[in-house]
Write a structure and sequence with these properties.
The complex is a heterotetramer of chains A (290), B (327), C (383) and D (263). Chain B has helices spanning 4-19, 23-49, 57-72, 91-113, 118-138, 140-143, 170-192, 195-205, 207-212, 217-243, 253-266, 273-288, 294-311, 316-323, and strands at 74-77, 83-86, 156-159, 163-166. Chain B is mostly helical. In chain B, helix 3 packs parallel to helix 5 (118-138) and helix 3 packs across helix 10. The longest helix of chain B is centred in the first third of the chain and has 27 residues, at 23-49. Chain C has helices at residues 2-22, 40-59, 79-92, 104-117, 130-133, 146-154, 175-189, 209-216, 229-241, 258-261, 287-300, 307-327, 332-339; strands spanning 27-33, 68-74, 98-100, 121-123, 139-141, 166-172, 194-201, 222-226, 247-250, 269-274, 344-345, 350-351, 353-356, 363-366, 371-376, 379-382. Classes of the chains: A mainly alpha (290), B mainly alpha (327), C alpha/beta (383), D alpha/beta (263). Chains in contact: A-B, A-C, B-C, B-D.
Chain lengths: 290, 327, 383, 263
């Protein structure tokens, strides 16, 4: 029973960051029809930026998180303007290939710049865990969960309340009609990719201090982000949130009770199962009529 | 003339070990050749059916493991007190087993994945390779997990007058890989230039129209997947007996990416594309060894991939063909 | 057709000519290490150790009156590339002797090639027992096997208080981790210690909460952690988070140096089996050699933590060069024979090979020293 | 004699929308039947359902007395129903001859073994298919462009190729989706001639078309759909005078067209 509660807490904490990763990826797919293979690299980029700001430039930790997220937004915008904008008329497969190329470049540039040695980011939270009955959790993890939740909420409000959000939703549903209604789809795409990238970088900035920062940290995370959005249905925002928590819990419980070795495999097996049984994911994106 | 040229090319390659018996050159060409076979097989799916299968290394890895396990033998429990035991088998049998097993998984993946298209298809194929890697890592009784299958015997062939000969020398391995590559090339050519190949190209070009004229899309995609997987399995088997170690990293995504780069730069959907792309990307790493940091090499590959897709999307071979004046 | 072929050959030959022209007289020593990829950090440390050994030896006049040249190849943390790097070193650079290849998997991948090309290799890090027991007479290992490490550790058990009664393992899921768990379990069980649970983790896993939660439930007092330095650091930090509440001992010779700058909260201490403790060069078996190595390393401004692994490259280089000196000529077979006669002091201690593996096909195995470092609140001390 | 195609109580709901409410009609063998109606009436949906691209919510489709409801498009094609498409009507990236060979797929039977070994039977079949392809290209007047990539053809030629691809394997029922859309008057006339010739070769034709003069001239019977329901069936002369048809076109703002047709 004690173990169950602890697993529940661990799963929630893990799921929150997974959701953050999934939302960015699914948003980009939904609006732009782009499978973003650089997502994992942007995650690593966010973590490295946090490290650079905190450890090398001595910036305050919280400010560094914000700056790293903004750096992710900027890198995302640059990727969109330099690469994706030219590929708007290309088929989805060509775009995927370009994004795979970009992820090769980003990852190896990171390795070149930072070396292969993993870095540890100092953080302002004392290392001792908070203990509540049988459950213990680091204050840093709670902070991460809190910020993830805040970012998710802020993101929803942005979509719901701002003009940019409305334009994004319109493009999400039907780019052609949106363009006819005066939405500048080009800029919506840039904004979308930048925000999606920012969310990935934010996830990296938040988790960097929890784990460690290394050039290959994005590999598995990128694959897991795919798992999350497939679980939830590609292009479905609630689905990505759900998928994030689902994967967090599946990994935590399968790892805790079934097999630690296959822990990371459960996510991928789950995807194959989901795709075999229910190819459109758990929460299918709205079918288009036309 | 143009019919003769490919055979002259093959003859030149076959004479290479005699003319230039430099073992390093042969080693580089042999390992490039194995990946070219992989690229030739990927081209059937990627180029001719237009399905971006990014789990292709799964079949390569399956072939490598099957062949290695057949050569080494195994003894595993499958629950309920039952055991499966296999005594070590000759390499050629492992080679055939590799083709069959990889082809079988090609059928399975085809049945599963071709129900979806586009991004879903890509991701399901990636996941397929990932799951196999996890299995290879953790089914230690069978695969030795991360400890890898080692001491895999070299390929052996029955040669008239000499009995069974183990292929230790560079030149022998080189010829073996060359021979398999030529066969793989011919198989793909025969398929592509037949009614089946036309059906594949039709569904790549216009799937709705293809269905309307009675082409059973999934049926033909699965056929393509089985052939493609079988050839990749053969390449994996050659790999296992040449490198003589197989570990779970054989399933890494980066190998698929390497094959994809070969096919894309050479020219997807052309018979010679993967050969040209494969020679370029199989040889460049060794030419650059010691001259550029490995990270820089990968950055260069990434940039090359982006530039090719953006500016020469059809690849080198079609570009060259269009330069040649038409008679 | 001819044109294409000659262009190809020219392309392949040019770099080879270039390197040959660079140092015609130098004696080449080949090294393959993971300089990029998952385990690049350690590979670069070991390569750096070999580099400074080359400099130190060249300053002292090289060997046989000729300078030394270290030809370093990247095996990209991957067995296929490890094989490719060896083919390049042996066939193109024609090195008569090799050092490598960090991980047991890479070393095992290379070993058939050593037989094929008849070139000896000094193994500086890999710990898998199979490396010296599989009957490969070209393998000479200066690194300890997990078993040797476990036996040596058992001799130091008395230094722990309260004494160990029951132990668990948290191991990376590969030869290194599983081998260590198995050998330590055997060695400590022989000393009357109860062996509990073994949890494993994939090398790339970052979240170890599930494993640690499982280990927390057991009634043992000590957990042995065996993995690379990065995952080791994660395990130590997350053990605090999950309130593991057990003594942690890490094996394998790596040290989580980042925990010096970012210490665990007060009251948490850990123990680390090391083969060289750079904080205390004076306590090394041969203080003068250890001091030279440490000083040269620091002069380069390299990361201090790298010293704990860099010595492997340093000692391997000393070993190889001594063998060349004994052989009297830089030829593979002569060096292989001479390696059996090497008897020199190194950073870790005395280096000499004893026979291991099936008769007639024995590999060489050195018997290294171990020490136990205690880390508490960012401070190190030798146990 | 029972009709070649019979659609019984067909209903199609997409999401919450009703595309076809309840439609029954039949196509007698050897005739040209047109399916007309204002935009959004459900004509293309009906095509999609008959050819297996969509599943009906309710109802049955009988072809030559056998039920084909819910079969996949390729199975339906194998039974002898082939359609043309409005927009993407050819295989791009392939030559005209290759297009024709691809469309002849179900006239061949060579399998994997035949392909790999180049068996004599496979080679004979290949020669036969080529002959058939050439014959069809001659028939539609595209033989001179056999080696031209399909996407390079003029628009009218592309439409003709599209019809040829549907007709090449001699289906029993040919469904043409707006074959004359975007054609000029002389091309439209050629198109009509082509459809008649195909009917004379023994193919039954079901046509969706907006060009009312063409529909009136070519059809043996007309089925009028409006808002998912059939409002009239009959010979062209009857349809022209049908009050509900006139009202439907008036309501949809396509009065001009219908009026023109009625004139």
């Amino acid at each position: 029973m004690d173990q169950l509660l602890q697993h529940l807490v661990n799963g929630t904490v893990l799921g929150g960051t997974y959701a953050l990763l999934g939302i960015g990826l699914t948003l980009i797919f939904g609006v732009m029809r782009v499978v973003n293979f650089t997502h994992g690299e942007l995650y690593a980029f966010g973590a490295y930026m946090t490290y650079a700001f905190v450890s090398l430039l001595g910036v305050n930790f919280y400010l560094a998180l914000a700056l790293a997220t903004l750096a992710g937004v900027a890198l995302g915008a640059a990727l969109e303007l330099v690469l994706l904008r030219r590929m708007r008329r290309a088929d989805i497969d060509s775009v995927m290939l370009v994004m795979i190329g970009a992820s090769l470049v980003l990852q190896n540039a990171e390795m070149w710049a930072w070396g292969g040695v993993a870095k540890l980011i100092p953080n302002p939270f004392a290392g001792s865990p908070l203990v509540l009955g049988p459950v213990s959790v680091l204050p840093l993890r709670l902070f991460v969960l809190g910020v993830s939740a805040a970012l998710l909420l802020g993101f929803w409000l942005m979509l719901d309340r701002t003009r940019a959000g409305v334009a994004m939703r319109a493009t999400f549903q039907d780019p052609e009609t949106a363009a006819l209604m005066g939405v500048r789809v080009g800029w919506v795409n840039t904004a979308t990719f930048a925000i999606g990238s920012g969310l990935a970088a934010a996830a990296g900035a938040l988790l960097g201090p929890v784990f460690m920062v290394s050039p290959t940290m994005g590999d598995l995370v990128g694959l897991k982000a795919f798992a999350i959005v497939i679980l939830g249905g590609l292009g479905s925002l609630p689905g990505a949130t759900l998928g994030g928590f689902a994967l967090g819990f599946v990994e935590e419980f399968a790892g805790g009770y079934l097999s630690t070795e296959y822990r990371d495999a459960f996510g991928f097996l789950l995807i194959i199962l989901v795709l075999a049984l229910k190819p459109q994911g758990l929460v299918p994106a709205k079918e288009r009529i036309g | 003339m143009s019919k003769l040229l490919p055979w002259l090319f093959v003859a030149a390659l076959a004479l290479l070990p005699v003319a230039f018996p430099d073992p390093y050159l042969l080693a580089v060409l042999t390992s490039a050749g194995i990946f070219i076979i992989g690229a030739i097989s990927l081209n059937l799916l990627l180029g001719y059916t237009g399905q971006l299968s990014l789990g292709h290394v799964a079949f390569f890895g399956l072939g490598a493991y099957t062949s290695a396990l057949a050569a080494l033998g195994f003894d595993i429990g499958i629950g309920f007190g039952l055991r499966i035991t296999l005594a070590p088998q000759p390499a050629w049998l492992g080679f055939i087993a590799a083709i069959v097993v990889a082809g079988g998984f090609g059928w399975l993946l085809g049945r599963l994945a071709f129900r979806v298209r586009g991004a879903y298809f890509v991701i399901i194929t990636i996941c397929f390779a990932q799951v196999l890697r996890m299995v290879a890592l953790n089914w230690i009784e069978l695969t030795q997990g991360p400890m890898a299958l080692i001491s895999i015997p070299p390929f052996s062939l029955w040669l008239p007058g000499q009995g069974v000969v183990a292929l230790y020398s560079k030149a022998q391995n080189y010829w073996l890989v060359l021979a398999v590559a030529v066969v793989a090339f011919l198989v793909v050519r025969q398929v592509v230039e037949s009614r089946i190949g036309r059906a594949l190209v039709a569904l790549r070009s216009n799937e709705s129209l293809a269905r309307s004229v009675g082409i059973r899309v999934t049926h033909y995609l699965v056929i393509a997947a089985v052939i493609s997987a079988g050839i990749a399995g053969a390449a994996g088997s050659l790999f296992a007996h040449y490198v003589r170690i197989v570990d779970p990293d054989v399933f890494l995504f980066i190998y698929t990416v390497t094959m994809v780069i070969m096919v894309i730069t050479g020219g997807k959907g052309t018979l010679w594309g993967p050969v040209v792309g494969g020679l370029i990307f199989g040889l460049i790493p060794d030419l650059l060894r010691g001259h550029a940091a490995p990270e820089a090499q990968w950055v260069a590959y990434g940039v090359a991939m982006i530039l090719f897709v953006m500016f020469l999307p059809r690849g080198i071979v079609p570009a060259l063909a269009s330069l040649r004046p038409r008679p | 057709m001819l044109n294409r072929r000659s262009v190809l050959l020219a392309g392949l030959a040019m770099p080879a000519l270039a390197t040959r022209g660079f140092a015609a007289d130098a004696i080449k020593i080949g090294m393959t290490q993971p300089l990029t990829g998952a385990v690049a950090a350690s590979g670069n440390y070991v390569a750096n150790g070999a580099k400074i050994a080359t400099e130190v030896l060249n300053r002292a006049g090289g060997v046989l009156g000729r300078p030394l040249e270290l030809v370093l190849e990247d095996n990209k943390s991957n067995p296929r590339e490890a094989v490719a790097s060896v083919e390049k070193l042996v066939l193109r650079d024609r090195v008569p002797v090799l050092i490598g290849a960090w991980s047991s998997t890479f070393t095992l991948a290379i070993m058939p090639k050593l037989m094929e090309y008849k070139v000896p290799m000094v193994v500086e890090t890999s710990s898998a027992a199979r490396i010296t027991t599989s009957g490969n007479p070209y393998v000479f290992r200066i690194a300890p096997t997990s078993e040797m490490e476990a036996v040596a550790f058992a001799g130091l058990l008395g230094k722990f208080s309260p004494p160990m009664r029951k132990i668990d393992f948290l191991s990376v899921n590969n030869d290194f981790g599983r081998g260590a768990a198995e050998k330590f379990a055997a060695s400590l069980a022989a000393r009357g210690i109860t062996v509990g649970k073994t949890e494993t983790m994939t090398p790339e896993a970052t979240d170890l909460a599930a494993q640690l939660t499982a280990l927390k439930q057991t009634d043992s007092d000590t957990v042995f952690v065996t993995t690379g330095v990065e995952q080791m650091t994660l395990a130590l930090r997350q053990a605090v988070e999950q309130r593991l509440g057990k003594r942690i001992v890490t094996t394998g010779g790596s040290f989580p140096d980042q925990l010096i700058a970012n210490p665990l909260p007060a009251g948490n201490e850990s123990f680390h089996i090391l083969f060289y403790a750079p904080w205390f060069p004076e306590r090394a078996p041969h203080p003068a050699i250890a001091a030279t190595y440490t000083a040269e390393w620091n002069k380069k401004g390299w990361e201090f933590a790298g010293l704990t692994e860099g010595f492997r490259g340093y000692d391997a280089m000393l070993t190889v060069v001594e063998a060349i000196r004994l052989a009297g000529k830089p030829e593979a077979e002569a060096i292989r024979a001479a390696l059996w006669n090497v008897k020199i002091p190194g950073v870790n201690g005395d280096i000499a090979f004893t026979k291991d593996g099936p008769a007639g096909q024995e590999s060489g195995q050195n018997r290294p020293n171990v020490s136990i470092l205690k880390l508490a609140e960012g401070k190190t001390s030798l146990l | 004699m029972s009709p070649l195609l019979r659609v019984e109580n067909l209903a199609v709901h997409i999401g919450g929308l009703v595309a076809i409410a309840d439609a029954s009609f039949s196509v007698p063998e050897g005739q040209v039947v047109s399916l007309i109606g204002p935009n959004g009436a459900g004509k293309t949906t009906a095509f999609n359902v008959i050819t297996g691209y969509m599943r009906p919510t309710a109802g049955r489709i009988l072809f030559d007395g056998a039920e084909i409801t819910g079969l996949s498009p390729d199975r339906i094609a194998e039974r002898g129903i082939v359609r043309s498409f409005q927009r993407t009507s050819v295989f791009t990236g392939c030559t005209v001859l290759e297009n024709a060979l691809m469309a002849l797929h179900r006239r061949g039977s060579a399998g994997l073994l035949g392909a790999l070994l180049r068996l004599p039977s496979a080679r004979r079949e290949e020669a036969r298919l080529r002959a058939e392809a050439w014959a069809m290209l001659e028939f539609v007047g595209l033989a001179g462009r056999a080696e031209t990539p399909a996407e390079v053809l003029a628009y009218g030629e592309q439409r003709r190729l599209g019809i040829a691809l549907a007709a090449i394997a001699s289906p029993r029922l040919l469904l043409l989706d707006e074959p004359a859309a975007g054609l000029n008057p002389s091309e439209t006339a050629e198109c009509m001639a082509l459809i008649r010739q195909l009917r004379d070769r023994g193919m039954t034709v079901l046509l969706v078309e907006h060009d009312m003069p063409m529909v009136m001239q070519i059809s043996d019977a007309i089925v009028v759909l409006n808002q998912g329901r059939i409002i009239a069936t009959g010979a062209p002369a009857e349809i022209r005078r049908h009050p509900e048809v006139i009202r439907a076109y008036l309501g949809s703002g396509e009065y001009q067209e219908a009026g023109h047709a009625a004139a």
